[in-house]
Amino acid sequence: MIGWAITFLIVALIAAVLGFGGVAGTAIEIAKIIFFVAIVLFLISAVVALMRGRSPPSIP
Questions:
Q1: Rounded distance, CA 21 to CA 32, Å?
Q2: What are the two backbone dihedrals, phi and then psi, of residue 45, each rounded to the nearest 5 degrees?
Q3: How many CA atoms lie within 13 A of 10 on its CB side?
Q4: Where along the chain do its domains lie?
């Protein structure tokens, strides 16, 4: 997901340089949304991994 956010950021920068303000604004908003969704999913994944923990291996 971070790759998609970076892609939209690059598209926004290129569009801004070429003078396409509407396209650049839309692309940067999409990039921000994707970035924050990726961060939230990462945090949820990290919390779930910490809550599950690892059980010690059983010794027969």
A1: 16
A2: -60, -40
A3: 6
A4: 2-52
Cβ atoms 37, 4 nearer than 8 A: no
One-letter amino acid for residue 45 of the chain: S
pTM of the entire structure?
A: 0.68
HSE value, Cβ hemisphere, 13 Å, CA-based, for 38: 12
Longest dimension (CA), the chain: 70
Structure-block tokens of residue 5: 């956010």
Q: What is the pLDDT of residues 9-39, one digit of tens each?
A: 888 888 888 888 888 888 888 888 988 999 9
